[in-house]
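S2.1 Query sequence (Isopropylmalate dehydrogenase-like domain-containing protein)
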Amino acid sequence: MKPAVGLAVGRGTGAELAAVFERTLHRISALHGVGVEIVKSPRTYHSYVSLREEVGDLGGIRALTEEDARHYERFCRERARLGTTAVFRTAVNAQSLYLVRQRLQAVKVEPIAAGDESLLLVRDEAQGFYTGENRHTPGVVTRTMEFSRETTGKVLDFAVRRAWRQWPDGGPARVVMAYKFHLLDGALDDWVGELGRGLGVEVRLFQPDTVNRNLITHGLGDRTVIVAGNEWADIMHVVLLDRFGGRRQENRCTENVHLHPELGELVEYQTVHGSADDLAGKDTVNPVATLRAAAAIAERHAGCPGAVGAVEAALAAAEQRGVRTPDLGGRHSTTAVVDAVLEALTARASAGPLPIGGPRAAGGPRPVAVLPDRP
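Output structure tokens follow.
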């Protein structure tokens, strides 16, 4: 039976990137002699721009936002029920997306390497200001959100388990949480202490500005886990990628793991960049993050070992030829970049199998020092 992969497409450049994803995943799976079924959601989800263009009034926006959220939630639940372990999603309107993340208890996972040291960023997407509901009165929007001990416990438990998977020889050296806990009457502080003791790890809870100062002053420490609320991690994700990983947002894909028990930790892969509505239909959107997402899904969920390394080598070959989209200073179309990468991928496969793991990605990490355990 062929493994099934879910596909959810948003407006803007979503259709173009979905085509890149399907083409790439099918090419990789064919090179490995395996079959993959791609199951596409029947609904095309709104971006913020398309939502504003389609309905300008408040009631219409709220109704379509909720419709998109309910539909995508059902799609994820159905895929998980049928045994699917991965979904690729292009960018959609954030308000719909965070309703789903709250209901399905999602976390975003980003390993960041810096020389011989590494950081695991686990972003709590399931609670806090980004989640919740709006109530409108004339001239006022009141947003109601919550934090819970149960959700915090699930996020911390996942972060520690994921850290042991990433560093099996020693697990996490330190676990740091970046939240505005001073606003929560001491509740989060109490929960974290109890939860850490239950997990057998020390968890240090910091204000976000303290985490920033420590990162600026001391850099990363090897095997550091940062668990962070959206309010900090959304902004700092791109900064951490640039400063410690030497990576651009436009080229990155990342994974969201759904911790609701009915989802079986279904993993949703996405590009880090947004919907880029202004580029829709121009064949100039950067496809690199989508190519990387297809490789990750192929290797981790579709029985294609070495796919990530092979695609990284093919990306490097295209880059050496100067084949890149305009946002990276090039003059090539989306299609031309994908053609170049898939040609290099096919040529490499013809030359012989790539060792599992493959070469280190281009644009290597920068050396940094240690993040101390201090308040």
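Residues 11 and 46 are 5 Å apart (CA to CA). The chain has two domains: 1-105+260-368, 108-250.
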